[in-house]
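Posting for a labmate who doesn't have an account.
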Amino acid sequence: MTMNDGVVKAKQSLGTRIAARTGGTLVRVVLILVGLFWLMPTLGLLVSSLRDSTDINASGWWKVFTAPSQLTVENYSRLLDNDIITNSLLSTIAITVPATLFVVVIGSLAGYAFAWMEFPGRDWWFLVVVGLLVVPVQVALVPVSKLFGQIGIFETTFGVVVFHVAFGLPFAIFLLRNFFAEIPRELLEAARLDGAGEIRLFTRVVMPLGGPAIASLGIFQFLWVWNDMLVALVFADSKNPPITVALQQQVRQFGNNVDVLAPGAFVSMIIPLAVFFAFQRQFVSGVMAGAVK
């Protein structure tokens, strides 16, 4: 440390001085390179989905930059004519959308109840919810399979949705309860003084303020269910499986069926990406809100 005109200055390290001189330029360059490297497999999959199977087997996807005439949309035409893939996409949507909506709605109501409503054993029940977070999915596969078989929902879309909702709710309740608990009590008390009941308080005050956290939860749940393969392999209908299982079956049955696998894999990946970017602002707001508070 040095003394200059009564001001004490801490001695900067070598790394700090280098970072100060280079500014943010070096950091931006490194982040751009990392981002490009991270997106390379996605770019390769996109290019492969636009090439003929003969070209895919003959050379790498990067060859398209020297021979752009290889690009074609024939693969996507074949994909739309493939009943297995199209039905699996519809099956995935039929599972993912209700599983996401139920988790968001039920998790929001339960999170509000645990945060702001008084009922017997509230803290103990919340501890039970937190404890359920550590229960792995693999532990429940066999007993839940037997239960679903007994009640007749094994290998059905409804059974897969129920399983995803059951295992998605503990995290949803934990996340939203902690976020809702940060809402100023004075704001809720003022709404109650104006005559707002619990339902109106939840819909008019808590829901708008908790929008970022709810959007973040919806993105997480959508991605988890859409990309799931383990639960789909066990509980989904084998004749009409979700897209992850359908692509895996295509690989096993038709090892050289790349002209269908590549566009199918890209479509199954681009849909959750589109959902993420559509709610990106709310997602970042939810993450930053927790950090600021």
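Reply:
Got it, the structure tokens are right above this. Strands lie at 2-4, 7-9.
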